[in-house]
Write a structure and sequence with these properties.
Layout: E1 22-26, H1 34-37, E2 46-50, E3 53-58, E4 61-67, E5 71-77, H2 100-111, H3 117-127, H4 129-135, H5 148-156, H6 163-177, E6 180-184, E7 187-190, H7 195-198, H8 203-209, H9 215-228, H10 231-237
Helix pairs in contact: 3-4, 5-9, 8-9
């Protein structure tokens, strides 16, 4: 029926939940530590949805990630469709239709998994005694390869700020300006806003109302400068 809200999908926090909807990549913790990387203040779209499981938005899709001794596990949730019923076990039928090769590629690119981190750690340890002292406590720390528009506008929000507050600001930004992707356990997830959404005549005022303060001018102004200059695709080509 028209106007009926879509049923919320259930969080899948482990491969045992809907195993057919999980995939994995070979990736030991020495190559990637989710807990260190996703909470480090590089990106502000991830939260630890249950112990060891991280849920967030990447590439206009909602993901849950977790890892074991030698694998990185992930599941991708389907987009909302108010006319599509959920399966009884809470698995969205649409989620299973996403191409595995493409989601593998997105995740490998995001974490730059084609860069061998263990070899770099060994080289850095040999060159720097200070790094050698801390490396054992901080293995698997990588630089995320993020969308440049999202990264730039997010880091404007970091000025005179801290991670928990930045995360809340980015969440409000996405809820107010970004399209809703899906709803999991009654929690809505939104994509990062498009440039056009952030360059409207009332965008700066709306951002100020959301608590962005002086940053509102720079978020909206930077979005406009990108849109009128290289554009999102042009900026992506510079990455």
């Amino acid at each position: 029926a028209l106007g009926r809200p879509p049923a919320a999908m259930k969080l899948r926090d482990a491969p045992s939940a809907c195993p057919s909807l999980w995939r994995c990549l070979p990736c030991p913790p020495a190559e990637l530590r989710l807990d260190l990387v996703l909470s480090s203040g590089q990106s502000f779209r991830w939260w630890e949805s249950s112990p060891g499981a991280w849920t967030g938005v990447l590439g206009e899709r909602v993901w849950t990630l977790r890892q074991d001794r030698d694998r990185l596990w992930y599941t991708v949730y389907g987009e909302e469709d108010e006319h599509e019923e959920e399966e009884q076990d809470g698995c969205s039928p649409k989620a299973a239709k996403l191409g595995g090769a493409e989601t593998d590629r997105i995740l490998r690119d995001y974490f730059q998994l084609d860069v061998g981190l263990s070899a770099l750690y060994r080289a850095w340890e040999a060159a720097d005694p200070l790094f050698r002292k801390v490396a054992e406590d901080f293995p698997g720390v990588r630089v995320l390869r993020q969308d440049p528009v999202e990264c730039l506008l997010s880091f404007i929000c970091t000025s005179n700020n801290h991670i928990s507050r930045i995360t809340a600001m980015i969440e409000r930004l996405c809820q107010a300006f970004g399209p809703r992707l899906c709803c999991i356990d009654a929690r809505p997830f939104h994509a990062f806003p498009s440039l056009s959404a952030l360059t409207g005549t009332d965008a700066e005022a709306r951002l100020r109302a959301l608590g962005f303060g002086y940053r509102a001018k720079f978020v909206s102004g930077s979005a406009r400068a990108i849109a009128e200059g290289l554009g999102a695709e042009g900026l992506l080509q510079l990455r």
